[in-house]
Amino acid sequence: MQNPLSLKSLNHFSLVCRSVEKSLDFYQNVIGFLPIRRPGSFDFHGAWKCINITVINIDEFRLFNYGIGIHLLKCEDPDRMPSISKIINPKDNHISFQCENMATVERKLTEMKIEYVKSRVEEGGIYVDQVFFHDPDGSMIEICNCDVLPVVPLAGDTIRSCSI
């Protein structure tokens, strides 16, 4: 397999938020991320929340777990953000997380009164269960047991860019 940029893994993704505080609560208490310290060498306004320290006028939080980070960035003009859809569409852009137990995920989401949509995919007798739901800003989250599917490269196939 080629790796033209010598990549190792996903490091982080950034989400623009209407309310960093609501998103911080969601990603900590629903998804299980932990706040981490912001490097002091950054020369732009922002903050990473440290545990047991309250910071006011937050523009940015850094969270980490599962080997990846999330940067929550406060939107400068929340009124200009896209409206939040009430429709949960599994075919929308989304972030997906593996889980250990789908029944636990569903039970916890129900307890937290988080609306979700279930899906089941079958591939060669193997079943993958998925749940989809929104974060406070409408970003789609998927939780699945996708690791039951084997990853099978398309041997001999080459992906090429072409101009039309």
UniProtKB/TrEMBL annotation:
The UniProt entry's coiled-coil ranges are none
**Entries under Gene3D superfamilies matching the protein:** 2,3-Dihydroxybiphenyl 1,2-Dioxygenase, domain 1
Domain VOC positions: 9-146
Q: Which Pfam families match?
A: Glyoxalase (PF00903)
Question: What's the name of the protein?
Answer: VOC domain-containing protein
User: What taxonomic lineage is listed for the species of origin?
Assistant: Eukaryota, Viridiplantae, Streptophyta, Embryophyta, Tracheophyta
